[in-house]
Design a protein that fits this description.
The protein has about 140 residues and is mainly α. The protein has a domain at about 10-25 and about 70-100. Helix content is about 50%, strand content about 0%. The protein is built from four helices and no strands. The relative contact order is 0.06.
């Protein structure tokens, strides 16, 4: 059995290209992990020479809204469509590669016509009559 790797390589290249295009512009920047911690600014430490010092109150950045933007939703939907299309393509290709060569390639092919019941009965009786004649003449 010969492995057909050319279509899979092409599919892999297309998927990698789609993933690269789907990444946000900041993901390929020089500092890829700055967005992970949540802060991009650096703070400098100051030393105090006084004997009594009080620490300033710690303020946490507040986030408003949160959640996914419309562009994020669109990216997720497109990724899901690509995954489902790839699965369908692989299943159909595998089914067609294992089908007999003389079988039709189309899934939505028409069914063969069935003769009406009276016609089938008539043909069956004619065959039985011919078989009886053959048995009689063989005696």
């Amino acid at each position: 059995m010969k492995l057909r790797l050319q279509p899979l390589r092409g599919l892999a290249v297309v998927l990698v290209a789609l993933v690269a295009l789907a990444l946000p512009a900041g993901a390929s920047a020089a500092a890829p992990f700055t967005g992970v911690t949540g802060s991009t600014s650096s703070t400098s430490l100051t030393t105090s020479t006084s004997t009594t010092s009080t620490a300033p109150p710690v303020t946490l950045p507040t986030t408003t809204g949160g959640g996914l933007s419309a562009l994020d939703d669109l990216g997720i939907v497109l990724a899901a469509i690509v995954v489902f299309a790839t699965i369908i393509y692989v299943i159909r290709r595998d089914a067609h590669s294992h089908a007999p060569r003389h079988a039709m390639r189309e899934i939505d092919r028409e069914r063969g016509t069935v003769a009406p019941r009276t016609e089938r009965i008539k043909r069956s009786r004619a065959k039985a009559k011919a078989a009886r004649r053959a048995r009689r003449s063989g005696r």
